[in-house]
Write a structure and sequence with these properties.
By secondary structure, the chain is an alpha/beta fold. It has one domain: Ribonuclease Z/Hydroxyacylglutathione hydrolase-like (Metallo-beta-lactamase, Chain A, 4-Layer Sandwich), CATH 3.60.15. The strands form two sheets. The protein has a seven-stranded mixed β-sheet. A seven-stranded mixed β-sheet has the order 7-8-9-10-11-12-13, covered by helices on one side. The longest helix is centred in the C-terminal third of the chain and has 11 residues. It is globular.
């Protein structure tokens, strides 16, 4: 199984540059220091899977080939991860768009954009089909098996996703012990590392590095980066060679040589 990962956005909830800030990161001319809100496009076995659909989705898609999505996976309901759902309207020419998230996330979407659902749906609203999923229960999109697993965003339970030997995590503070088997034998991990200073609901860059090394992942990218994470170029001076700051538009290709079989409880 070949997996192509494109990082559509690698920034935190405010994006980078931060409005009104003139720090060296926000004023940087290095394009890698300009970060949309975090999202990724996964292509595997002929399927196109979007992870999160934030408020920068429209701008992100103007840079991509106009093709349908087979699934939109939502990690959680915070605005920087779901604020672009209305902008899925153009993609409905291919048919209704299937959205997958946990129950609280699905309920939140129905409340946030009620004009997309129900008997009196607004005529030009996007056609969205909402599907509830649960952590540790496999989701199949065609031949592609997606394994949602639990991570903790402070006190808030949210989802990470594993496909083959690739996993994607955003907004995590702690990894529950029952989720660790879902991160074994990875070839690539994309994971959040907000900044160097501790935060109550996000892990730091140092936390992320420790996790990656503990899992013995050979290749990793850090995302959900704040301007206080520092310059992309500077990160190359202190991060281990197998760990890098992700950047918007970066493409990662991995070839999986083993199927993932979750540990049975």
């Amino acid at each position: 199984m070949d997996i192509k990962i494109k990082l559509l956005g690698t920034g935190t909830s405010s994006g980078v540059p931060l409005i009104g800030c003139s720090c060296n990161v926000c004023s940087s001319t290095d394009c890698r220091d300009r970060r949309y809100r975090s999202s990724a496009l996964i292509e595997v076995d002929g399927k196109r899977i979007l992870i999160d659909c934030g408020p920068d989705f429209r701008e992100q898609m103007l840079q991509e080939t106009f093709l349908p999505f087979d699934a939109v996976l939502l990690t959680h309901e915070h605005y920087d991860h779901v604020g672009g759902l209305d902008d899925l309207r153009p993609f409905c020419v291919f048919g209704a768009v299937n959205i997958y998230g946990e129950g609280p996330c699905i309920k939140h979407i129905e409340q946030r954009i009620p004009y997309c659902f129900g008997e009196h749906k607004y005529p030009s609203a996007p056609s969205l089909v909402l599907h509830e999923i649960e952590p540790f229960k496999v989701l199949e999109i065609g031949n592609v098996k997606i394994f949602p697993f639990r991570v903790m965003h402070g006190q808030m339970p949210i989802l990470g996703f594993r496909i083959g030997q690739f996993a994607y995590i955003t907004d995590m503070k702690k990894l529950p012990s029952e989720s660790r088997p879902y991160l074994e034998d990875l070839k690539c991990l994309v994971v959040n590392g907000l900044r160097h200073k501790p935060h109550p609901t996000h892990q730091t860059i140092e936390d992320a590095v420790e996790l990656i090394n503990d899992l013995d992942v050979p290749e990793a990218r850090l995302i959900h980066l704040a301007h206080s994470a520092g310059l992309h170029a500077d990160s190359e001076n202190y991060l281990p060679p197998h760990i890098k700051f992700g950047y918007d538009g970066e493409e990662i290709n991995i070839q999986c040589d083993a199927d993932f079989i979750p540990v049975q409880s």
